[in-house]
Design goal:
This is dTDP-glucose 4,6-dehydratase. By secondary structure, the chain is an alpha/beta fold. It has a domain at 13-201 and 239-264 and 305-325: NAD(P)-binding Rossmann-like Domain (Rossmann fold, 3-Layer(aba) Sandwich). The chain is built from 13 helices and 13 strands. It has helices at 22-34, 73-83, 97-102, 105-127, 131-136, 169-188, 210-219, 239-252, 269-283, 313-319, 327-340, 342-348, 351-360; strands spanning 2-3, 13-17, 38-43, 63-67, 87-90, 138-144, 192-197, 199-201, 224-227, 233-238, 258-261, 266-268, 295-298. Helix 6 links the parallel strand 6 (138-144) and strand 7. The chain is globular, with a radius of gyration of 20 Å. It starts with a strand and ends in a 10-residue tail after the last helix. Bound molecules: nicotinamide-adenine-dinucleotide and thymidine-5'-diphosphate.
Length: 370
């Protein structure tokens, strides 16, 4: 276990796993801008975890970064007994569908075994708490809409009662972790809440996912790869809206319940990529051409889910949460952020990143008429 900053024990604290990744880091930064409550940030620092995202917190006594694998039970036990958090917010996961298709083992290890290990450590910790602390404790599990499988055009949106039908190794391991989380509530009374969110986008997004990949490919004048015909549909949620939904659920959600969170922005992939290109044409124009000219069609993803769509009436009606950003406002902020933060991009584009991009995007096929 490697502790980067230390702080006094005592006082209210939350323990965040995966807080050096995209959503977890946005959550930690957002939390510490708004609250005076310590965050114990537990992250293994895989290729997706970047301490440079957390640079602004250096020296902040309310942030304690600990490099730990969530499958390491003794390290987790030590953290629970040392810091006595009032809540766990569990983001840590292997999260990229394409990587899960090429090497699923790590997904089983972290998403299933890691979540199991964290649940066991939390269960034992809870047994030692007094009744008040036990009643106040929460275990928030950050899941995905992908556990519900794939929709056809016209199918009703995913609601909290939609049966599970995961299609990729990634979504299958997330589904397995959801089932474990649910079972720990039913069997042991662990006060868990699971959130199913749609595709997040925003600052600090690792550039292997569609939106940051498109921005960086465009800025480097490289081909922008669209899988297949670009007609697959995702719902897009601005990451800081997701953070506000998590804070709402942490404060007001009911243990044992699940909540779906979306951005009310269903878009075809081609529409998303074109929107990014159009924003770049506006904010960072090229001399004689549009960024759209860089869009190419490449081989489709194996088992590519056609459509995800979220019915989020439950969180809206029961907890009064709704997203603040439209797709247009969130995307503009995102593109502007990447234009303004080239140093972050350079830092995260390590050898590991370049290896993946070379492996994945060789032999792109140029398509006509985009
Ligand atoms: P990410 O890949 O950017 O970050 C994951 C973080 O977890 C990284 O910092 C990594 O170092 C850490 N990690 C990985 N394995 C670990 C381990 N064994 N022990 C400790 N830390 C480990 O992921 P993200 O996009 O920030 O996603 C966060 C969570 O939200 C995940 O659970 C993911 O399934 C879920 N989710 C993400 C999206 C999205 O659009 N990004 C959508 C729905 C759900
Ligand atoms: P991604 O960002 O990987 O998220 P997810 O697979 O979790 O939805 O992909 C979003 C969509 O974009 C998905 O339908 C796959 C597609 N896609 C491309 O067309 N080209 C790409 O280079 C990538 C990474 C994704």
């Amino acid at each position: 276990m490697c502790v980067h900053y230390s702080l006094d024990e005592g006082g209210l604290m939350i323990l965040v796993t995966g807080g050096a990744g995209f959503i977890g880091a946005n959550f930690v930064l957002d939390w510490l801008q708004r609250r005076n409550e310590t965050v114990i940030n537990v992250d293994k620092l895989t290729y997706a975890g970047n301490l440079c995202t957390l640079k602004s917190l250096t020296g902040n006594p309310l942030h304690c970064f600990v490099q730990v694998d969530i499958s390491d039970r003794s390290a987790l036990d030590l953290l629970f007994s040392r810091y006595a958090p009032r809540a766990v917010i569990h983001f840590a996961a292997e999260s990229h569908v394409d990587r899960s298709i090429h090497s699923p083992e790590e997904f089983v290890q972290t998403n299933v075994v890691g979540t199991f290990t964290l649940l066991e450590a939390a269960r034992e910790y809870l047994d030692r708490l007094d009744d008040d602390a036990r009643a106040a404790f929460r275990f928030l599990h950050i899941s995905t809409d992908e556990v519900f499988g794939s929709l056809l055009p016209g199918d009703p949106h995913f609601c909290e009662m939609t049966p599970y039908a995961p299609n990729s190794p990634y979504s299958a391991t997330k589904a397995a972790s959801d089932h474990l989380v649910r079972a720990y509530h039913y069997t042991y009374g662990l006060p868990v809440i699971t959130m199913h969110c749609s595709n997040n986008y925003g600052p600090y997004h690792f550039p292997e996912k569609l939106i940051p990949l498109t921005i960086l490919k465009a800025l480097n004048s490289e081909s922008i790869p669209i899988y297949g015909d670009g007609q697959n549909v995702r719902d897009w949620l601005y990451v800081r809206d997701h953070c506000s939904a998590i804070r709402t659920v942490l404060s007001h959600g009911t243990p044992g319940q699940t909540y779906n969170v979306g951005g009310q922005n269903e878009k075809k992939n081609i529409e998303v990529v074109q929107a990014v290109c159009d924003l770049l044409d506006l904010l960072h124009p090229k001399a004689h051409s549009s960024y759209r000219d860089l869009i190419v069609s490449v081989s489709d993803r194996l088992g590519h889910d056609y459509r995800y769509a979220i019915d989020m009436r439950k969180i809206k009606i029961e907890l009064g949460w709704k997203p603040a950003e439209t797709f247009e406002s969130g995307l503009r902020k995102t593109v502007q952020w990447y234009l303004d933060n080239q140093h972050w991009v350079n830092e995260v584009q390590s050898g590991e990143y370049r290896k993946w991009i070379e492996f994945k995007y060789t032999n792109v096929r140029k398509s006509q008429g985009r």
